[in-house]
């Protein structure tokens, strides 16, 4: 709990610090003027896009739950999705979302094996779609984007490469039991050697039991082309909602931009910040947004940054935190 609180404070502090620096380094009065004149209709649509990223991810989870004949209510899966965004936002490399979701689902009686199979299936589809979109952004939109953001565009290649490596590794992990077995034995043996793990053999046995179940789940997924296609489409819709936010931010403050151009830049920025280890990529996300989008927004960059970061990050923290607290309270009341 203390570590989560520390990560939360680091993420919020870094984010706020960079935003304040940007606001005072640019024309502060202009930023306030753009904010006060922002179109409420477009702002509401931006919130709808944020909601859409949660909704389509929950739909993906529901598809995998139905594939496994799990009668998990859609509203709970939506809740778990938003909770995951909260923990992703306060942990390095956005690594805390899935473990937190597994814990919350286990508290509702869903086994670790079932929840892990669902979440990793979702992550596998997500990585596949984001990597394919990244390929389009890097190899098709790169010449156009590089004109706007100069040599910074080269960072997108590293982001794309990292996501590709993650995808390849995940596929190997999912479909190669022998490789996974060796990896599990190595990791647990190492943790035992440095005295982090005490009961080595029992932990290996438990891990192998869960992994056998997990691998069978992955093989079942491969045999379900309809589920794969549907999950890929819902994930694509989720990502389109996410990368479309800057375009509607521009509309909200009256800045004319090209949709395909600005969404390509947003996708490249996403690939770049995935390299950053700070909780929620705080600090670098804000700085990167200014560097990548300054040529689009001009004097309105401060206002655009505030609107974008609120809906792409702080909304996850606010709603995810509230739903996490509600779920903890719900379970406590159930026990009582």
UniProtKB/TrEMBL annotation:
Compartments where located: Cell membrane
Membrane topology: Multi-pass membrane protein
Keywords: Cell membrane, Membrane, Transmembrane, Transmembrane helix
This protein's record includes keyword Cell division: no
Entry GO CC: plasma membrane
Transmembrane stretches, start-end: 41-59, 71-90, 124-145, 152-173, 226-250, 262-281, 301-325
InterPro entries, per the entry: L-PG_synthase/AglD
Matching Pfam families: LPG_synthase_TM
Protein name: Integral membrane protein
């Amino acid at each position: 709990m203390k570590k989560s609180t520390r990560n939360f404070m680091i993420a919020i502090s870094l984010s706020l610090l960079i935003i304040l620096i940007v606001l005072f380094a640019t024309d502060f009065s202009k930023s306030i003027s753009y904010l006060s004149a922002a179109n409420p209709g477009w702002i509401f649509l931006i919130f709808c896009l944020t909601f859409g990223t949660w909704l389509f991810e929950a739909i993906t989870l529901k598809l995998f739950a139905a594939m496994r004949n799990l009668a998990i209510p859609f509203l709970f899966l939506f809740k778990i999705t938003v909770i995951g965004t909260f923990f992703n936002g306060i942990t390095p490399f956005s690594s805390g979302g899935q473990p937190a979701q597994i814990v919350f689902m286990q508290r509702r009686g869903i086994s670790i094996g079932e929840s892990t199979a669902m979440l990793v299936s979702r992550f596998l589809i997500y990585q596949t779609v984001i990597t394919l979109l990244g390929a389009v952004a890097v190899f098709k939109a790169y010449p156009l984007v590089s004109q706007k953001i100069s040599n910074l565009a080269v960072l997108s290649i590293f982001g794309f490469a990292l996501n590709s490596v993650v995808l390849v590794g995940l596929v190997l992990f999912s479909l190669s039991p022998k490789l996974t077995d060796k990896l599990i034995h190595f990791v647990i043996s190492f943790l035992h050697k440095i005295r982090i793990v005490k009961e080595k053999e029992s932990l290996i046995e438990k891990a192998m039991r869960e992994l056998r179940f997990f691998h069978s789940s992955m093989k079942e997924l491969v045999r379900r082309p309809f589920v794969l296609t549907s999950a890929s489409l819902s994930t694509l819709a989720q990502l389109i909602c996410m990368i479309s936010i800057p375009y509607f931010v521009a509309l909200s403050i009256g800045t004319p931009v090209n949709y395909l151009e600005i969404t390509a830049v947003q996708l490249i920025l996403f690939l770049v910040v995935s390299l950053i280890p700070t909780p929620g990529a705080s600090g670098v996300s804000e700085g990167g947004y200014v560097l990548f989008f300054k040529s689009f927004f001009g004097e309105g960059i401060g206002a655009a940054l505030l609107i974008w970061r609120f809906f792409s990050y702080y909304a996850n923290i606010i709603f995810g935190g509230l739903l996490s607290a509600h779920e903890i309270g719900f379970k406590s009341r159930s026990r009582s």
